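Handout, page 2. Input:
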Amino acid sequence: MRQYSPQFLSSLGQMLPPGVTATGKPGELMIEGVGVRKFADMRQDIIYDRVAIPATNAAGSELVWFRDIQGKTRFETNMTQSSKLPEGQEAVIYRVNFMIRAKAPVKDVIEILNTAYGEFVLDDDNNVMSGPIVTFASAYGHYGQIMTTKNAVDEGVVNNGIPSQGANPRLMLPLYVSENRTFRFNLKFYEACNLPSAAASAAWVILDSLKTRPLR
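Output:
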C-alpha cells in the first residue's frame, strides 16, 4: 500500500471538505455519517450527467438528471447505470453544480436561471437539497464578457456562477451515496420557461465527490 509522509497527512485537514477529518492514525479518515476509510482507498472525482432542456417548458414540467442514461456518450455522463453507483463503490458528495452549456445564448441562460427550481433527491423520496436553481451555482464553465462580432452584433458569454469553487461552497454536511442508494437531480418549472432562442439547450449537473471503496 502506498505510504504517505506525516507532513502530507497532517495537511489533509486544510484540503478535505467539511465532515471529513483525520482520525489521528496514519492514512485514516473519518467521514461523518459513513465511518473510517483509508485515504489510499479514496480518490477525488466527479459524477456528472447532461440533460436536454426543451425550448418550451410548461408550468409544472420537470427534467431529471442521473436517471435516463441509455445511449449517452462519455461526454454527456459517466454514469453506467440509472440512478446508482456501480457495485462496490461509495461516494461522498461535497458540492452540487448546475452548469448550462457554454454555447447557450445569454437570454436563454437568464430565462433558465429566472424560472428553474432544483432538487437533489436520495432514496427516491428524500429531498436533501432544494431551492431556486441559482443556489446550485456552477463552479465550472464560462463567465464574464468575451466580445465577438457575429452579424455585426456583439455577444457576451456568461454562465451560472463564476468558474471558481469558491462560488459554490462545499456542503457543511457531505451527502453519502453507496451502491444501494439511488440519487437524482430534478429541475422543476413552477412557471413556464420559454427559451428566447426557440431552440433546445442542455445543462450538466456535476457532483464533486470523494469516491471510496467499501471496507472488506
